[in-house]
Amino acid sequence: MAGKSSAAAATYSPSLTGQRKKRPPIQTDSEWVRPDGRGLHQCRPAFLKTGAVNSASGSAYAEFGNTKVIVSVFGPRESKKAMMYSNAGRLNCNVSYTTFASPVRGQTPEAKDLSSMLHKALEGAIILKSFPKTTVDVFALVLESGGGDLPVITSCASLALADAGIMLYDMVASVSVSCIGKNLLIDPVSEEESYQDGSLMITCMPSRNEVTQMTVTGEWSTTKINEGMQLCLDACSKLGKIMRSCLKEAASGPQD
Amino acid sequence: MAAASGTNDLSSDMELDAFRRLFPLRFHERHLLESIRPDGRPLGRARDTTLSLGAVASANGSALAKIGCTTMLAAIKLEVMIPIAEAPDEGCIAIDFHMPPICSPLIRPGRPAEVAPVISKQLSDTILSSGMIDLKELCLVSGKAAWMAYLDIYCLDADGALFDAALLSAVAAFSHLQIPVVSLNDNGRIVLMSEENGENGGSMKKKEPVNKEKIKLKLNSQPFSLTCVLHKNYILADPTFEEESIMETYLTITLDTNFQLVSLNKPGGPGLASTSAIQDCIILARQRVKELQQILNEAISDMEVD
């Protein structure tokens, strides 16, 4: 292993990653062609499954195209000793990436901001009063990052919370939209995210029709924003239905 | 002490789960008397094991191994390095074992598990000393370029016998490894053939690939392992987390496919292992190696069918 540390810094990936793929020119009259051949308003195929990790109180696995995420929920359990007394429960979120999540090793995104975004997206949906003095831990591991990571993590975490039997006002579903030129692309992959003009992400509770988190970046016109929001909300309610049916399946499975 | 002496009577009134939590050792020892374990296994049998190759699309080689509930995901990424002067024809393998907080309630973010670096070291010692991979196979251009294989193993669910599952996933990831065809460009860098052609198209003449015949890594005898818990006179193969945490000591035996001993590890503990117990463990390990080899071969042939 002597060569490990000395050689580690000097290695490079054989793929030409230094240069990003150039963005194709925007054609104003023709339709945008997506790298995976989807329609502009078509989401990636989603696979969801609860009970992925046996040693956790609740867990879920989500696979949206190439984005693969596992979320484990632990607790409610004792809060850290240094914590003050609190009537309401606490939520603790942590997101991490595997070293092989991105195409080039070691180029995984900073996960600290994702942890706090996940916390903010979920806390509004959890009935924190139902577990006073204790903490619920939500840990996410991104096995493979293929774009739209945060929305997938958030939806998967909500499913894991439900699997753990944590009381929720409603499930939380999250979808993002990318704006490229005049086109709105739902559920973008990494390549599309890399050359987008703007992005919009909505996290909502579909059956209560409430939004827990919404982020807008880049340049948007008011009409575009409205259109994008409507797209997201429609997709969220569809995703919510898929999540519900996944939970129902898991609940009815063992009795058969 | 009245409670302790009365447990035998108490157990008949108590709920099973409560008894299991309050007196875990008694609970297990009662099973051992009947030569059976709480999950219904006989003492010498390992849990159901599954293996699937190619679980991570962004890696050059990957495998997901499950032994009972213990789940390991191993992935290999190849990068190019300049070989050191002492060994100009050799590549390098860097092995890292991770236990992210999702895998066990005992691990919190920011406080890495104590066992992770121990298993990491054990894995690299075992894999590098077993002679499974000839580092010369990783050479691209002598003295100029060689492959650096980064093997990362993630524990997704920790339920005992972590080393066995990690080693199985690592060996499987190496047998799934597909080496990309590369060529040497004008700047002396190694680049992928497909991208080289795509970027420069017809303007440049095609470069010769430097590793045309080395798409698969040749694996010599692969190592497989079995962990056994030693408790009093009993030997329990492939322990769960619960069994590992309450019983006296354990022994990990690694054999290669020719049944040569690669490593034997007994990490202390209150129990001592007698020579006959070690021999019994080796016999169990021999059977297990046959099983694991078959599981790996099946996984490889499943992959080829797809």
UniProtKB/TrEMBL annotation, chain A:
GO terms for cellular component: cytoplasmic exosome (RNase complex); nuclear exosome (RNase complex); nucleolus. GO terms for biological process: nuclear mRNA surveillance; poly(A)-dependent snoRNA 3'-end processing; rRNA catabolic process; rRNA processing; U4 snRNA 3'-end processing. One of its GO terms (molecular function) is RNA binding. It comes from the Eukaryota. Keywords: Cytoplasm, Exosome, Nucleus, RNA-binding, rRNA processing. Residues 1-37 are annotated as: Disordered. Belongs to the RNase PH family. This is 3'-5'-exoribonuclease family protein. Signal peptide: none annotated. InterPro entries: ExoRNase_PH_dom1, ExoRNase_PH_dom2, ExoRNase_PH_dom2_sf, PNPase/RNase_PH_dom_sf, Ribosomal_Su5_D2-typ_SF, RNase_PH. SUPFAM superfamilies: Ribonuclease PH domain 2-like, Ribosomal protein S5 domain 2-like. Residues 42-166, 170-231 form the Exoribonuclease phosphorolytic domain. The keyword tRNA-binding does not apply. CDD domains: RNase_PH_MTR3. The keyword Nuclease does not apply. It is found in: Cytoplasm; Nucleus.
UniProtKB/TrEMBL annotation, chain B:
The keyword Iron-sulfur does not apply. GO terms for biological process: exonucleolytic trimming to generate mature 3'-end of 5.8S rRNA from tricistronic rRNA transcript (SSU-rRNA, 5.8S rRNA, LSU-rRNA); nuclear mRNA surveillance; nuclear polyadenylation-dependent rRNA catabolic process; rRNA catabolic process; TRAMP-dependent tRNA surveillance pathway; U1 snRNA 3'-end processing; U4 snRNA 3'-end processing; U5 snRNA 3'-end processing. PANTHER family: EXOSOME COMPLEX COMPONENT RRP43, EXOSOME COMPLEX EXONUCLEASE RIBOSOMAL RNA PROCESSING PROTEIN. The lineage of its organism: Eukaryota, Viridiplantae, Streptophyta, Embryophyta, Tracheophyta. Residues 46-180, 223-287 form the Exoribonuclease phosphorolytic domain. GO terms for molecular function: mRNA 3'-UTR AU-rich region binding. Belongs to the RNase PH family. CDD domains: RNase_PH_RRP43. It holds the Pfam family RNase_PH_C. InterPro entries: ExoRNase_PH_dom1, ExoRNase_PH_dom2, ExoRNase_PH_dom2_sf, Exosome_comp_Rrp42_subfam, PNPase/RNase_PH_dom_sf, Ribosomal_Su5_D2-typ_SF, Rrp43. Keywords: Cytoplasm, Exosome, Nucleus, RNA-binding, rRNA processing. This is Ribosomal RNA-processing protein 43. GO terms for cellular component: cytoplasmic exosome (RNase complex); nuclear exosome (RNase complex); nucleolus. The keyword Cytoplasm applies. It is found in: Cytoplasm; Nucleus, Nucleolus.
